Amino acid sequence: MKLAFSTLGVPGLPVPEVLALATAHGYHGVELRAHPEEPVHPGLTPAERADTAALFRSTGIEVLGLAGYARVAAPGEDAPVLAEIRDLLRLAHDLGAPFVRVFPGADPDRPREESEALAARRLGTAAEDAAALGVRILLETHDSHRTGADAIRILGPVGHRQVGALWDVMHTWLGGEQPSDTYAALAPHLGYVQVKDIASAEDTTPLPLGTGVLPLTECVDVLSRRGWDGWLCWEYEKRWYEAAAPLPGLLGAGREHLARLLGEAA
Ligand SMILES: O=C(O)c1ccc(O)c(O)c1
């Protein structure tokens, strides 16, 4: 498996410094948080996109994906949601990134079936744009659909290979789902896996990998046993927890922890 980290862990850090961290600590790729407060987002000009892509190429570090904020199951018109996804897809294409992350974001006060049908319709439409650009849209296990069982109620009806799943191990654990059950649900759809660690369900402040309660060993075991050979991406939620220790000082030990889990699972 290949290893990446998300720039959610290094808010606002310029791309050359992100690449220097990836190189220094042995990560193969980076997931870019595609938000206007970050250096890479859909507002970049063609020249800025070309410069960013060239920076990645010069280091050999891959852009794993763009973490966008489109909410595919949210109430409202389809057009703005589709426009947001298309902007992310174009940016991913220009940067050579294979994946774009979207959130579910259903309104809990609305009938579940209605939100899921809405999400499936939008993803099915956006899948055609994704196919034309050679990018895959991944629905993250998050908010209204935090388990694999939840996510496949949307992904199953879409049934398009340009639309898949992003397994965030914290949200599936918070949803009470065992890693083997998440894997069984998501396997036909799985794009990649976000790993992280936290102290408890009540305290989700990010911790160094391996020092919290999340079932990282079980997740890596199930992926390895089934011969899955994709990406593990460390998503350290520093942006939302200012008091958390800075990620750069943790990246080396985090990579070693993941390498150890992978070695022991092999
Ligand atoms: O991109 C984000 O902001 C974000 C926040 C929380 C998460 O659990 C996550 O996977 C992503």
UniProtKB/TrEMBL annotation:
<protein>
    <submittedName>
        <fullName>Sugar phosphate isomerase/epimerase</fullName>
    </submittedName>
</protein>
<dbReference type="GO" id="GO:0016853">
    <property type="term" value="F:isomerase activity"/>
</dbReference>
<dbReference type="Pfam" id="PF01261">
    <property type="entry name" value="AP_endonuc_2"/>
</dbReference>
<dbReference type="InterPro" id="IPR036237">
    <property type="entry name" value="Xyl_isomerase-like_sf"/>
</dbReference>
<dbReference type="InterPro" id="IPR050312">
    <property type="entry name" value="IolE/XylAMocC-like"/>
</dbReference>
<keyword id="KW-0413">Isomerase</keyword>
<dbReference type="InterPro" id="IPR013022">
    <property type="entry name" value="Xyl_isomerase-like_TIM-brl"/>
</dbReference>
<feature type="domain" description="Xylose isomerase-like TIM barrel">
    <location>
        <begin position="20"/>
        <end position="259"/>
    </location>
</feature>
